[in-house]
Design a protein that fits this description.
By secondary structure, the chain is α+β, with helices and mostly antiparallel strands. It is built from 6 helices and 16 strands.
């Protein structure tokens, strides 16, 4: 059994104590991290390795950054999402570990949506990134590897994935184009782990720091684990660990996890 989790830590330096505590208490086998906000050289590899994890990082100064932590050896395949050699943002890392092909992905936010009544450069970048992931995923599925694409997708898939759909109508995370790109990816035959085993509304993975969103449970569900058919056939459990969001000075995201019988 492999327990795999995804977590946008919103600065690995600021959240290191939380990350180390959570690794001890939750004990995942594989962790996909996003929004590290540091370059590879500044990633706290030593502290995490002391907890029994191998580390692979694609970093960037101040912004973005993704990593894979695993109790098994890691064989890195990609440190950039294929399809745009000019894209220098650190948003994708892919590797083999624990008999799985995994990717940690930090999707663009995409706001603001409009610029002079047209799609903004940021929103177009978001849609282009999702299209690149779609084409790359098609090539990965041909291999029939057990595949897990985890991360902060910055997409609210359905109305039940937000406390108030009307509040998000103008946001890039909830635009028809963003949600259509999400569905297009899922139509490749991917299974979203949490929704596969949990169909109730009111489950969230992100709460804004403002307006008492956490205390009021005014959240959104934007952190996801997509599984290939080979991995989905072995899915045994999934959930959202709300515990770290309640700690002092937390990330605004909390871990999402699943168990795969490998």
């Amino acid at each position: 059994m492999v327990k795999i989790a995804t977590w946008n830590v919103n600065s690995v330096k600021a959240r290191l104590a939380h990350l180390l505590q959570w690794l001890d208490e939750f004990g995942p086998d594989i962790v996909l991290l996003q929004e590290l906000k540091c370059i590879e050289e500044n990633f706290p590899a030593m502290e995490i390795e002391d907890k029994g994890y191998n580390v692979a990082v694609a970093g960037q100064k101040t912004y973005n950054g993704v990593a894979i932590l695993s109790k098994s050896p890691i064989d890195v395949e990609e440190t950039q999402l294929p399809g745009d050699p000019g894209d220098e943002q650190a948003r994708y890392i892919e590797a083999f570990t624990a008999n799985l092909r995994v990717a940690s992905i930090y999707f663009p936010n995409g706001n603001p949506v409009k610029d002079d009544s047209k799609h903004s450069e940021k929103f177009n970048y978001k849609l282009a990134f999702m299209e690149r992931l779609y084409h790359h995923t098609k090539t990965l599925l041909v291999t029939e590897d057990a595949l897990v694409l985890g991360g902060d997708y910055n997409v609210i898939p359905e109305d039940e994935d937000t406390y108030d759909p009307k509040a998000w109508l103008d946001d890039a995370l909830f635009q028809p184009e963003s949600r259509a790109a999400w569905r297009k990816l899922s139509y490749l035959g991917l299974t979203e782990a949490f929704r596969c085993l949990n169909d109730e509304a009111g489950h969230y993975s992100h709460w804004d720091y403002r307006g008492g969103a956490w205390n009021r449970d005014q959240g959104i569900r934007i952190d996801h684990l997509f599984l290939s058919p080979t991995a989905a056939d072995r899915l045994t459990a999934s959930g959202i660990d709300r515990t770290p969001r309640g700690w002092e000075k937390p990330s605004d995201h909390t871990p999402v996890w699943c168990d795969i019988d490998i």
